[in-house]
Specification:
The protein is an alpha+beta fold and about 325 residues long. Helices cover about 20% and strands about 35% of the residues. The strands form 4 sheets. Strands 1, 2, 3, 4, 7, 10, 11, 12, 13 and 14 form a 10-stranded mixed beta sheet that branches.
């Protein structure tokens, strides 16, 4: 069955993101499926699921900021930095609310963070959690991540419930671990719920129980069209002849109002949603020369030093992704 679109799932605790995805894929009868932003089995919350041609947009459309509600338990360190790991150390020390509040500014802004030993990051072509399970844990190099805000929602001396807004790639488990380290008592992540991925909120997501209680037709009512994934992007509408060229992977030259719609954009920096006949035809980037094609390994055309197009100047679009819905 040809199924195309985005479905926002409120993933339950206890299932991996892939298991949840496959349950919905089988229900819909979709041939192709993927998800955006993995949630661990212990976590719940909004999980964008893509089906059919929407899978081509995942990398470009879902590298969004995220928001979480996290529960941190103090006094216990674990192997996985969360509740599912083995206990490494325990402490009788507990922070006060004042100490917690005084520490949080160290964890906001651009910070250096070491990913958990049990993570999906690959070292030597193998996920770190696989190395750890084989008895050869590897510590990844620290990397810079962005944390926009941390707010204390609740605190009882033993646990803190935090609202965290952060950039993509931030590990909440690492925040919990490092928070306990700074406070001198150790800590781990004891609960996690993702409340937002970019524009997508958990309030707008459907639960797995609701989906499985119905049939494929009922589940399909929760699908959002491909245009949802590119809402707010620069857009250009092609005529029939241009659309045929674009569908064949050929660059398309724009003039007049089409070009004017993209004036002021820095070439090679922003992706453009390409529309035809009321549907999404694909993604493109501005090229600086007619006939330029997207040839980079990741499918993205990049030309360092490209200048912004001048109003009224012809613009050439280089295809990045072609959608065959």
């Amino acid at each position: 069955m040809k199924v195309h679109g985005l479905l926002l799932l409120d993933k339950p605790v206890g299932l991996s993101s892939n298991v949840a995805l496959q349950k919905v894929r089988r229900l819909l009868g979709a041939d192709k499926a993927g998800h955006g932003g993995t949630l661990d089995p212990m976590a719940s919350g909004v999980l964008p699921l893509m089906f059919g041609e929407a899978c081509k947009l995942a990398g470009a459309a879902l590298t969004h900021d995220k928001a979480y509600e996290a529960e941190v338990r103090f006094g216990i360190r674990t192997t996985t930095d969360d509740v599912e790991g083995e206990v490494l150390a325990q402490s009788e020390l507990r922070p006060t609310r004042a100490q917690l509040l005084a520490t949080l500014p160290q964890f906001t802004g651009l910070i250096s963070q070491v990913p958990p030993v049990y993570s999906a990051l690959k070292v030597g072509g193998k996920a770190m959690y696989r190395h750890a399970r084989e008895g050869r844990p590897i510590e990844a190099a620290a990397r810079q991540v962005r944390v926009d805000a941390i707010e204390v929602l609740d605190f009882d001396g033993e646990r803190a419930r935090l609202a965290i807004a952060c950039g993509s790639g931030t590990y909440i488990r690492s925040i919990a671990r490092d928070l306990g380290e700074v406070l001198g008592c150790g800590a781990h992540l004891s609960g996690l719920r993702r409340t937002q991925v970019g524009q997508y909120r958990v309030q707008d997501a459907v639960t797995l129980d609701t989906l499985l209680a119905g049939d494929a037709a009922a589940a399909a009512q929760h699908l959002q069209g491909l245009l949802t994934l590119v809402a707010g992007w620069p857009q250009v509408v092609l005529d029939d002849a241009q659309a045929r060229r674009f569908a064949q992977g050929q660059a398309v030259r724009l003039t007049g109002q089409q070009a004017a719609a993209l004036s002021g954009m820095r070439a090679g920096m922003s992706q453009i949603a390409v529309l035809h006949a009321g549907r999404l035809a694909g993604l493109a980037r501005q090229a600086t020369q007619p006939g330029t094609r997207a040839t980079q390994p990741d499918g993205l055309l990049t030309r360092p030093g490209s200048q912004a197009a001048q109003p009224g100047s012809p613009v050439t679009l280089a295809p990045v992704r072609v959608i065959l819905e």
